[in-house]
Amino acid sequence: MSKSINKVVLAYSGGLDTSVILKWLRETYDCEVVAFAADLGQGEELEEVRVKAKATGASQVFIDDLQEEFVRDFVFPAFRAGAIYESQYLLGTSLARPLIAKRQIEIAKQTGAEAVSHGATGKGNDQVRFELTYQALAPEIRIIAPWREWDLNSREVLIAYAKKHGIPVPVTKARPYSSDRNLLHISFEGGILEDPWAAPPDDMFLLSVSPQDAPDQAQEVVMDFEAGDPVAIDGEKLSPAKLLARLNQLGGRHGIGRVDLVENRYVGMKSRGVYETPGGTILRQAHLAMESLCLDREVLRLRDSLLTNYSELVYYGYWYSPEMELLQSFMDQAQQPVSGQVRLELYKGNVTVTGRRSPNSLYRPDIATFEADTVYNQADATGFIRLNGLRLRIRHALAEQLGGLKR
Predict the structure, then answer these.
(1) Could you write out the DSSP letters of every residue in 242-253?
(2) Which candidate among 42, 163, 167, 172 keeps its CA 20 to 30 Å from the CA of 312?
C-alpha cells in the first residue's frame, strides 16, 4: 500500500461507516484526515459531528451550510429542465452528490490535500457520482474508495473495528434500512425494503403524514415563478432554500410526495427505493402548469425529447460534463418566458392545479373559444387534415394493391 499521501479530505457524516473510514485512512495511509460535512438540510445537529470527527482523529473539520447553494444551483436548474428519472424519481440524492464532491475538491486545494475519499459502497451509484465529479474538477487528485479496498465487509465487522479503536458506536437499535436526507427529499433503501413485495412500515416516513391521516380540508397555495424558478408562496418572497423548506412543510402536512419504486442503478442492477419528496412534488406540478401556459409547443416537445437524457446524466453523475453544460444552457433559455402564478390545491396526497396566469401566456381565449370568433377560419382545417392524411391514403392504396392492410 502506497504511503505517499500526506493529507486526505473525507466526506464525513459521523455515522458508523465514515467514522471507521476516518480511522482506517489514518492507519492505512499514515496521513492526516480532514473531515468535511455538508449541511444540505438533513435536520441533524452537525456540531456533534465536529466533536466526533475530532475525537476519531481528524486534523481539521469543515462543516459548511450549503443549503442555499444546493437548491439554487442544483435543485432549481434540474426542475427548470423537468428532470425526473424513470418517470418517478426526482433525483434528491443524485443532485446532492456533485455539490458535496465539488466542495471536497475546494477544501483539498485550500488545505493542500493530495487525495479525497468517500464512504460510498462498490455496489451503488454514489461512488460514480463522487468520483466523476472529482475527475471533472481536479483530475490530478488521488481518489480513495475504502469499500473497494478494505476487507471490512459487514456491519458486524465495522462495529468490531470501531470498538477495537475506541470509536463510539451508537447503542440505539439499528434501523432495518438505510436512509439519506437533504432539503429535497429523504430516501430509504436496503434491509427490509430489499423485498419489493414488502410494504414500507408506517413509522419509517419522516417528512410526511400518511394521506389517510392528512387533513380533511384541502389547502390552497399560490406559487409565483420567474424564468422557470419559484420565487414566492402565497405572495411571500422566499430564498430558494426557505421556499423549498416551506413547500416541504405544506406537502408533508397533506401526505404528498411518497414514491415506492424499483429503479435501475447505473452499475447495472435493480434496486428498490422509497422516497419522500413533498416540496419537490408540489413544485414539479406547479412548474408543469406554468409551462403549459408559456412554452411554445415545439419548444416543449424538444425539451421533453431531451428529458430522459438530462435526467440520466444527473442520475449517473455527469453534472460536470460538456453535454450537461449544453443541455442546461438549452433548458435555461427555454425557461425565460415561464413566469407567472399557479394556484394549487393540496389534499390527501394529491396536488391539483386549479388555475394559472402569466403575462407571457400563449393561451388566447379569442382563438380557443367554442363561441363565434373572427380570428380562426374553421374551414381552413379541411386542407390541413387532408395534407396530414395524404400519407395514410397512399399507404391504404398500396395495401389494397397488395391484398389488404396488415395489422
Answers:
(1) HHHHHHHHHHHH
(2) 42
